Amino acid sequence: xxxxxxxxxxxxxxxxxxxxxxxxxxxxxxxxxxxxxxxxxxxxxxxxxxxxxxxxxxxxxxxxxxxxxxxxxxxxxxxxxxxxxxxxxxxxxxxxxxxxxxxxxxxxxxxxxxxxxxxxxxxxxxxxxxxxxxxxxxxxxxxxxxxxxxxxxxxxxxxxxxxx
Length: 164
What we know:
It contains no helices and 15 strands. It folds into 2 domains: 1-69, Beta Barrel (Thrombin, subunit H); 79-164, Thrombin, subunit H, CATH 2.40.10. It has a 4-stranded antiparallel beta sheet with strand order 4-5-6-7, with no helix packed on it. It has a 4-stranded antiparallel beta sheet with strand order 8-9-10-11, with no helix packed on it. Strands 12-13-14-15 form a 4-stranded antiparallel beta sheet, with no helix packed on it. It is globular and about 40 Å long. It has 164 residues and is mainly beta.
């Protein structure tokens, strides 16, 4: 992280550890829920998607700020969700073959069709980069959902992609 700390997400908790190895943040979801995907945001909040298909937004003290349910057909551990600076979040819907951008309250505000998406992130230019499990590729989409770039791998899955 920019401050030198390390953010760690396991299926049971979120932790942030400083450079000296001291735990400076910890959060475990209520009711025994498990964490499928998580991200630390620049503003100090954390977001996670739990196995009951619920997004939790947590402040730097571990307090749940808000939560909403996501209609996921298949719940996959791993992959990537992506929190945006404006409070929105990108979530891959693997079984539904789409990536959806939700506002802070869980209202869908943008989506793009992608076969079995695993990870999605918003690029500095406003486009969205998505990886597809079944198509072995990374795809960049503009705000209108038009494909503007792709990378295709031979004989292997593309599960993560980053572009700065």
